[in-house]
Design brief:
This protein is an all-alpha fold. 62% of the residues lie in helices and 0% in strands. It contains 3 helices and no strands. The longest helix has 22 residues, at 3-24.
Amino acid sequence: MSWQDLIFLAGNVFSLVVLGPTLRDEMATIPLGTTLPSAIIGLIYGTAFATLGMTLSAFGAVLTEVMWSAIALLRSPNPFSSFSEKAPGTHPSPRSPSTPNK
């Protein structure tokens, strides 16, 4: 185990701590354009770290990928939701009443 392995692990643990509240907040919405690329990057980093023998970094990166995947699944707007529920051109905030923005 190298000091670099510990530094990357610490960075990933910090990411997990910071992302935790987003996963717990039922009102949070994070676009798929943010969550999916972040999850994919975590998987790529985890694979790269594993091939370099940095097992702790690989483990941390994969955990971060799992967290981003969970956020994508639970906190991203459903792209297949019914468009008939919304008036064209309106995007109400999830924290506000469901009245159209003017």
